[in-house]
Amino acid sequence: MTHDNSPDTSATSRATLPLAPGDWELDPLHSSVNFTIRHLGITKVRGRFGEVKAELHVGGSADDVRVSAEIALASIDTGNADRDAHTRSAELLDVEKRPTMTFRSTRVSGKGEDWSMAGDLTIGDVTRPVTLAVEFGGAVDSPGRQGRRAGFEATGEIRRGDFGLDFGTGLLGDLVKVQL
Fold this sequence. Notes:
This protein is mainly β. It has helices at 11-16, 81-88, and strands spanning 2-3, 22-25, 33-39, 43-49, 52-58, 66-72, 76-77, 100-111, 114-123, 126-141, 148-159, 172-179.
């Protein structure tokens, strides 16, 4: 995430949150959305989504933090072109009907490096609550660039069946681990 160098004038914000209030943008060169899912019950398939948009708004307290993200499902990459094409098809993700996956935070809490972010995940026309564990990696002034950089890692799990994605039962696990 990147932020301009406008000063933080609120002592309360610094004491409550590790970031200056304002709007932060996703740094696409240092960001990824990865997943892991069981295949045939004996191995794991790992992949990523290459097209992600995200925004972070930091207010004066954790109650005023908002995160939103949009992921293009067609940007899936598992390292196997045939598998990716099949995953995009109507039989699986059906990216024609479900082009994006979106997340909107509803609550952020924590301190230091360990945070939790609850929100609503929408895939197609199904929205379910999801909670992610968030590790704050820190913030630094970026050498050679304007602005400040902050690092985060978020992890969680979703169940495909909760979103109506129950294709491939027996071939693919229901539990999907996500790493952002």
